[in-house]
């Protein structure tokens, strides 16, 4: 990064900080009325945004532009919420385009990776290693969340807002999930329906069985299907490269809609819970993910650079699916073989939701604290064991964490009102936990590749390399 780039970032950060300070002084000096200080604060902050835009133009890369779009979207949502809330359509367009990629990409890459590999036993060995890693890491995520919420006691003394009951009435109560429901949910009854419903794990299960069957055929009959799947994978990676040019607009619109619709005042009452979650996720990254990376000799600096773009997309959109195609491309470019990427990352979307699992630990104990219900350490451990099971297999379910949280509250006879209070800041919490989900799954693919001794052994596909360098 050159001196001009550094200057642009420094000017942007200083201007945003100064503008925020002017806004703070203005609000306290005039009780929220429009003042010259308020106007000056807005102008200074937008100078900062423009300075960051100049940095993005100079870098000519998608990652800086996505970051700049996040900042600009947040500023627009704060300054003009009525305008910002109308921009959701651009975020929805981006998400729709991404969702069209996910199922065909997973289907094609898994089939090629397994059927083209020729060694079905190694696929089974890789699956066992991935599941062992998933279970260890998600259990540690629960432990970090449990400790964090017991230290901060964010739910103690919470006063429920008057609209909590109205919010509760608007929510559909989900049924508790049992182990047989989770197991059944993994298997597709109709491939087209699974693709239409966005059931990633079901598509992956179909692809694995299809690939095993394909591998047993003679070369003459297998070759045409393999060529079709290889071509489909290449097209979908190219499709991803095209769609990603729209990512800054989609991400900026998502951030503008979130800030414009929620505002910042909601953090006054629930800021402690929000800080608890963000702090716990940071501790989890440093105390669990980083040691895991170092233990398997993952090139940490290169990994952080590769995961920055999909993590940013996940944070801004609060949707793991939006980051999945780019995450797969980045991990393949980093050195993870395509067959491992195509197997581990989709499986991780159901079995390795590190951020969501940690959030569930924090939120469930928060509900008990807010309701004044004392849970012993033994009861909390039983609740965590329940969450280990109920948090699996919910990928693709709308508001999946809410489903699990409400089911857990019903199981342990906890009131629902605190859950609906949490919904007020759930969007901000969802952004952080989704980002950690994506980073955790990307790391899992590298760990499994290292564990298998396959990291960095295959040449990167030119289409993937082209997309990553864009």
From TrEMBL:
Keywords: Cell membrane, Membrane, Symport, Transmembrane, Transmembrane helix, Transport. The keyword Transmembrane helix applies. It is found in: Cell membrane. The chain crosses the membrane at residues 37-55, 93-118, 130-151, 200-218, 239-267, 273-294, 358-382, 402-425. Pfam families: SDF (PF00375). PROSITE patterns: NA_DICARBOXYL_SYMP_2. It is a multi-pass membrane protein. InterPro entries: Na-dicarboxylate_symporter, Na-dicarboxylate_symporter_CS, Na:dicarbo_symporter_sf. It comes from the Bacteria. SUPFAM superfamilies: Proton glutamate symport protein (SSF118215). Coiled coil: none annotated. The keyword Transport applies. This is Dicarboxylate/amino acid:cation symporter.
């Amino acid at each position: 990064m050159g001196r001009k780039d550094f200057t642009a970032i420094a000017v942007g950060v200083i201007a945003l900080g100064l503008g925020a300070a002017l806004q703070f002084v203005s609000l306290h000096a005039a009780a929220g009325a429009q003042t010259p200080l308020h106007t000056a604060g807005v102008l200074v902050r937008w100078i900062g945004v423009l300075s960051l835009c100049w940095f993005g133009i100079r870098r000519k890369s998608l990652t800086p532009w996505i970051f700049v779009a996040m900042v600009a979207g947040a500023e627009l949502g704060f300054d003009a919420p009525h305008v910002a809330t109308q921009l959701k359509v651009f975020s929805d367009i981006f998400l729709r385009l991404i969702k069209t990629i996910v199922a065909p990409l997973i289907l094609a890459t898994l089939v090629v990776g397994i059927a083209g590999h020729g060694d079905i036993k190694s696929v089974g060995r890789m699956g066992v290693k991935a599941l062992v890693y998933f279970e260890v890491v998600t259990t540690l995520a629960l432990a970090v969340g449990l400790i964090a919420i017991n230290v901060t006691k964010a739910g103690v003394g919470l006063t429920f807002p008057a609209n909590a009951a109205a919010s509760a009435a608007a929510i559909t109560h989900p049924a508790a999930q049992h182990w047989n429901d989770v197991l059944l949910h993994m298997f597709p009854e109709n491939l087209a329906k699974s693709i239409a419903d966005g059931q990633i794990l079901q598509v992956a299960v179909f692809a694995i069985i299809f690939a095993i069957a394909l591998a047993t055929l003679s070369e003459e009959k297998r070759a045409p299907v393999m060529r079709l799947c290889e071509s489909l994978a290449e097209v979908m990676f190219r499709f991803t490269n095209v769609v990603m040019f729209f990512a800054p607009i989609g991400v900026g619109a998502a951030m503008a809609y979130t800030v414009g619709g929620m505002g910042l005042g909601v953090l006054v009452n629930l800021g402690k819970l929000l800080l608890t979650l963000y702090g716990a996720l940071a501790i989890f990254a440093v105390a669990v993910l980083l040691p895991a990376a170092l233990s398997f000799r993952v090139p940490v600096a290169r990994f952080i650079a590769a995961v920055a773009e999909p993590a940013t997309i996940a944070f801004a959109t609060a949707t793991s699916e939006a980051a999945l195609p780019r995450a797969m491309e980045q991990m393949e470019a980093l050195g993870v073989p395509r067959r491992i990427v195509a197997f581990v990352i989709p499986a991780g979307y159901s079995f390795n939701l590190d951020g969501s699992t940690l959030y569930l630990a924090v939120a469930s104990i928060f509900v008990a604290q807010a309701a004044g219900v004392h849970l012993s350490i033994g009861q909390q451990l039983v609740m965590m064991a329940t969450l280990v099971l109920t948090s699996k297999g919910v990928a693709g379910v709308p508001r999946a964490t809410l489903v699990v949280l409400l089911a857990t509250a019903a199981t342990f006879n906890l009131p629902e009102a605190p859950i609906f209070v949490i919904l007020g800041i759930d969007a901000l919490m969802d952004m952080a936990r989704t980002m950690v989900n994506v980073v955790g799954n990307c790391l899992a693919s590298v760990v499994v590749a290292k564990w298998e001794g396959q990291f960095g052994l295959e040449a990167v596909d030119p289409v993937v390399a082209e997309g990553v360098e864009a």
